[in-house]
Every structure is written in C-alpha cells, then in structure tokens.
Amino acid sequence: MRAVIAEDLFLLRDGLTRLLEAHGMQVTAAVDNGTAFLAAVTADKPDVAIVDVRLPPTFTDEGLKAALAARREVPGLPVLVLSQYVEQIYARELLASGTGGIGYLLKDRVLDGAQFADAVRRVAGGGTAMDPEVIARLVDRSSADGALATLSPREREVLGLMAEGRSNAAIAQRLFITERAVAKHTASIFLRLDLQPSDDDNRRVLAVLAFLGR
Amino acid sequence: MDGGTGTPERGWRQGRWSWIGAGALAVARGAGLCGLAVAGLVLLLALLMPLFLAGLGIGLLVNGPAHWPAAEGAAVRAAPFAGLVVSLLLFPALLLAVRGLAVATRRLSGDWCAVPISDPYLSPPADGRGGYRERLRWLADPATRRDVQWLAVNTLGGWILAAVPAGLMLYGLLCLLGGNRGHPVVATPPAFPGSEPPMLLLLGAALIALGLWAGPRLLRGYGLLARSLLGPTGQAALALRVAHLAQTRADTIDTGAAEMRRIERDLHDGAQARLVAMGMTLDAADQMLGDNPAAARALLAEARESSAKALAELRALVRGIHPPVLADRGLAEALRGLVLDLPLRIHFASELTGRPPAPIESAAYFAVSELLANVSKHAHARQAWVDLRHQDGMLRLGVSDDGCGGADPARGTGLAGIERRLAAFDGVLALSSPPGGPTVVNMEIPCALSSPKTSSC
What we know:
The complex is a heterodimer. By secondary structure, chain A is an alpha/beta fold. In chain A, 54% of the residues lie in helices and 14% in strands. Chain A is built from 10 helices and 6 strands, in the order E-H-E-H-E-H-E-H-E-H-E-H-H-H-H-H. Chain A has a 6-stranded parallel β-sheet, sandwiched between helices. In chain A, helix 4 (88-95) links the parallel strand 4 (79-83) and strand 5 (102-106). The radius of gyration of chain A is 17 Å and the shape is globular. In chain A, 47% of the residues are buried. By secondary structure, chain B is α+β, with helices and mostly antiparallel strands. Chain B has 3 domains: 14-230, no CATH class; 248-321; 326-446, Histidine kinase-like ATPase, C-terminal domain (Heat Shock Protein 90, 2-Layer Sandwich), CATH 3.30.565.10. In chain B, strands 1-2-3-5-4 form a 5-stranded mixed β-sheet, covered by helices on one side. The longest helix of chain B has 61 residues, at 3-63. The radius of gyration of chain B is 36 Å and the shape is elongated. Classes of the chains: A alpha/beta, B alpha+beta.
C-alpha cells in the first residue's frame, strides 16, 4: 500500500513514515506544505494520503483545504486528516461529498501504532475513520432533536461506532453483543434515517453524514 | 393604495390628534420646568447671600449712622457678619442642593425634552454624603461652576422658553372665556382688529393651537439650552473618558493576570504532573526491562496512557484560551462550531462579511459561549437563537432563548464578567430577562471588519 504524508513538523513526519513502514506500507512522499502535497498526490496517485490540518504558510486550516482540493483533483482519493484538535465543522466539510475514504483523527491516535495503521487501511479501503472525540460530542447532543432522537440509546451507540468507521464485527466485540444483533441495529438505523438499500459501505457513510449533518 | 404607502398613511391618521396630546403634555412639562426655575432662583439668591451680607457689613462699618449709641451700633454692625458666617456654614448644603437641581434638570431634559444630557462631574454625583471638605472640592470641578451658570441663565431667561407654551394656552383660554361672556376678560393686543366675541373666540383658538404646536419644539429648545451648560464640556468628556479607560485597563490587567494564574495552575496540576508521572513510570520500566519484561510492558502501556491524558488536558486548556476554529476561520465559523457542540437546538445566523480584530473576536466568542452555557444550565430552554451582524460600525451579537427567564447580572459573576470584558473594547451588554422568559441578551462592540482572508490553497 502506497501513502503520501503532509506534515510540517519534522519529528512527526519522520515518526509517521516509520510507523507506516513498520506496518508494511510504502511512503512515496513525505512533504511539509499543501502545494507540495497536491503535486505529490497528483503525481504518485497513492492509495491513501495523510494530511495535517495545520500547514504553512498560514498554519490555520491549510491542510484541510489541501485535502479537499486533492479529493477534487484525484476523485475518490482516500484522505486521512490528522489534527491536534477535532472540530465538527471540519468533519462535516470532509464528509460533505457523501463518499467514503475519509478519516479525521486526533494526532494522539498515532500513539497506538497498530490501531492507527488499522484506521489508515480502513480509509484506504473506502471506509471512514472519525475520531471518537467527534463522535462522543455528537452522541451527547444527538438526543436533543432530529431524526436521531428517534434512535434508541443502543442504536445511537452502534451509530457512533459505525461513524468511527468500525466494522460490524468490531462493533459486536466492543459492545459484547453478537454480530447478528449489530446487523439488526444497523438495519434499524438505516430504516429510521430513511437510507435506501444500496451498497453497505456507502450507506454507512450516509448514516454518519446524517449523524453529523442533523 | 398599495401596502407600501399604507403604513405612512396609517401613521398620519394615528398622528392626526396625537400632536394635541403631545402639545398638552409639553405645556404641562414646561410649567413643571418653570417650577424648577423658581427653585433655581431661590438657590441663586441664597448663593449670592454671602456677597450681599459682606457688602452690607462693610457698608455699615464704613458708612453707618454716626448717631447710633455705641452698643446698638456694634450690634447692627456685627449682624451682617454673623449672617455671613451662618451662610458660609450653609454653603456646602447649598452646593448639594445646586447639584441636586442640576441632576434633576438633566434627567427631565432626557425624559421630557428628548435631549439626554450625560453627567459631567469628575467626582461622583451627589450622594448626600461627604463632609464640608468634599463639598468644597466640588468647587474645583468646572461642572459645578457651570451648574451655577445654568441657574443664572435659567433665571435670566431660560425659563421663558418653557413658560411660553403655557402662557399662550392661558391667554388663549382667557380669550375664549371672554368670547363666551361677550366682553373681553383680558386686553387683546393693540394691533388686533377688535375685541368682539367672534374675534376673541378665533384669537383664543389660534393661541391655544399655537401653544400646543410650539410646546414640544420650545421644550426641545430648552433642553438644548440646558445641555449647552449642564452637559460635559469637551475637556470634561475627555477627563471622563480617561477615567473610563483607566478603569477598564485595570480590569483588563486583572482579568489577564487571573487567566495567567489559572493557566499556570492547570498546567501545574495537569500536564506537568502527568509528564512527571510518565518519566517515573518509564524509569521503572527501564529498570524492570531486564528481569521482568511483562511488568515493564505494563508500565510502558501506563506511560502511554499518561501521555494521552496529558495531551487531552493540554487540548482542553488550549481550547479554553483560544479555540482553534476561531483562529482558523474566524468568529462566525467558530460560533457555528460551538453551537454544534451544545446539547440544545440553537438557530444560528451570521451576516458577517469580514473579520473583526482578533481580540474582539475572542471576547465575542467567549461572551456567546458563556451565555449559551448559562442557557443550557439555567434557562430550561427548548430553543435558542444566536445572531451575528455588523452594522453602523458595531459588531452586534444577539443571544436569546425561550426559557424561564429571570437572569440577573447582580447574582453570579457570569454576566458581570462578560460586561467587564466587553467594556475593555467599549462594548456594552443589554439584558432583558423577565421571570417566565424569554431571555434576550444583546451585545454591541464598536469595531471595523477586515476583508475576508483569501484562500491560499
């Protein structure tokens, strides 16, 4: 699996490269700004791109804009955005296209190398990887209104884990229930959120979007 | 007629008789102001009393009747000086009365004449306390001297402005009375063609109408005259401004210092402590690595956990100092993000086209954040509204909810704190929160917007 990294801090860039290589991925380019990142993804066409939100020159949301631009240049490019902070409005912008292959994680998550590599693979495979912190805040407030209010607490829990990007098997393991029970919950969620049957991955992204979009 | 012109027409109809009401009110108020002028005259005479007594005393000393017996002559000569001493002792009370009258005139000018006058005093306005020395210090305040000048101007002619409408009304009524009885009750003006009843009725009606029409206008003139003397001079306005700036600067420094202490404490108790623990855990793991790799591994996991917690705490701390989206995207987006995070249905609207200066963005963000926290904690609201506009050189923020109301800035420090922080930018906060709701908070901060940052990607 081939990856491109955009991260302005040398230590973290270096660490990320080593981490990915340790998990059997190949880093074709590791750059420190948005412009070089765009050039690298259009040239290399990697399987996944990893971008820091804060990049020079403005050190604001340059990386986010670069990630969205890269998705326009190379449609369907899986992008994992890393940040010191997770913000719901950024999560929404990333998911706005309604397609998968999107990740948005706290930088802290690289501390657990195996789990991080897992998230990278999931994004590369067209899934989503939303940070539990984004999800936790959404779950807190989703009881307030909208279609999500009709979900049972258990269903909301399942939706949260689904939004993080976990498979039914992983969700079953986390909640100590059977995979069949998870499947039942997800079907009910899709029904309540009025998501037509289509391919499962896409529906999962749409469910997350409904979650974020409210 | 279409809807567009319907409204003014209705306004005219409503206004058809309203000028009579306004006029009558103005006439009554003018009469009230004349009453104040009489009080002013009394005060002015009392103020001049020491001069009069001193003059009299000196006159008697120099020029007293020579044939008075010695004892009686001494008593007569001493009397004015005794009066002088008494009047000087009463002087501070007199100053207090002058200030009271000036304060009342200022308030009435705002309430009755639609000419608000702000306080010009350097020392705090009349509070009825403070001794002789405090009153004498008032003499050093130019505003006190201007108060006395106002008494003179008002006595010499200012009151006429207020009295004319009432006079016109009175004269008009007397004319009407004369017209009714068939012979004039008062003399008509010499140039007036006749004192016959029809003419008198006509004159009376005209005078009353004139009085009613002129009432509000003359009252306004009176207010403007009062403002020219009772309002702060340019210099006094500057002095007041300096006092305000010194106060808000001190508040800002206090707030800043308190914030620094809080950050220091948070770092000390949070991230710093965790890093120390992490170092110790790593050290222990290092020592165990040789003979007990399993235990060392557990310690390493613990160290990693500590680092994650330290990061989380630092993140929360930074969010409290300067929220990342605020830095990245500005006030509107940051508030949009804030609204998303709260467990409450909040309608957000922003009409900002640019960005206010960063310190103002930050103050506004934390003000709204605190208000919304209040809403979700205390208001029991189902919905809330946040709107954001820039109008007439002011950043305007509105936060309202449909909750139970009854918010009181006097209780709790939240609202007062917001007010103080906004004051550093000359911003103001207005709260309306009747028991039973709804609560509406409006904030205004004067500032200019910079054009939106152009994207560099």
